[in-house]
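Exercise 4. Each item below gives a protein and its sequence. For each, produce the structure-token representation.

Item: Type III pantothenate kinase (Flavobacterium potami).
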Amino acid sequence: MILTVDVGNTRIKAAVFEESTVVENFVFEKIELEKKIEKILKKFPNCSDLVVASVGSVEKQSFLAFEKQLKVHFFTHEDVFPFHNKYATQKTLGIDRMILAGGATLQFPKQNRLVIDAGTCITYDFIDENDNYLGGAISPGLRLRYESLHNFTARLPLLTLEAPDNYVGNSTPQAIHSGVVNGFVYEIDGFIDEYRKEFSNFIIILTGGDAEFLAKRLKNTIFANSNFLLESLNQTYQYKIDND
Ligand SMILES: Nc1ncnc2c1ncn2[C@@H]1O[C@H](COP(=O)(O)OP(=O)(O)O)[C@@H](O)[C@H]1O
Ligand SMILES: CC(C)(COP(=O)(O)O)[C@@H](O)C(=O)NCCC(=O)O
Ligand SMILES: [K+]
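Answer:
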């Protein structure tokens, strides 16, 4: 049984795995980290490993306190991954993106894969059928879009996610919802169409906090798997153990 932890820039997601089965999921804020992990380990004393992927401001030392209880692995660029990393700036590539690419490589072998993670940022990660990680794109996530419209203008209100009534927004709130939500959806559909022009067939994996909202609005039919990063963390960790 292992405890996997995904530290994103908005929230921390965690899951206890028994082999490849999720036993329980958790979502919490960074400030709750220590308390929450203690609670989880109390509930699941059989956890033998704590496996972490962090792009947020939480560093490895925040987890060292748990080394007395179980094996702690904090993923870094030095770890072995199941793909050939063709990124030009490998040391700055997000660990979350590497874990997503690791999971996509292991879960969907011998095919092109596009992973879209709609979280704080939307990240696009492409791994080709020869397991070459090519890179992709980084774009502002949904909440970032609402916040930036408010923070960088004199008069726009700070709104929270709401599906627009129409792409022609006939009020300030509706114009903002249309711009944010439709811009988000058109961007993703546009990227997918672009990839389709160059790569004949590929599988699309959609994940992240906004994946459920997105899945039903995209022209391209894709299924959201909000657990994909944690599943990938579990699998990539197993791969590392088998190949270290
Ligand atoms: N309870 C919530 N708190 C914060 N964001 C949420 C929540 N529920 C859904 N979201 C959406 O999920 C996004 C954050 O997704 P997530 O994948 O957790 O981000 P990250 O991995 O970057 O921390 C936000 O942009 C927001 O639109
Ligand atoms: C782009 C990200 C901030 C996404 O993080 P998230 O949306 O999961 O919070 C993260 O992948 C990151 O810090 N990347 C570093 C730059 C790069 O990947 O090239
Ligand atoms: K993301």
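Check: The pocket of potassium ion (ligand 3) is lined by residues 117, 119, 121, 123, 208 (CB under 6 Å).
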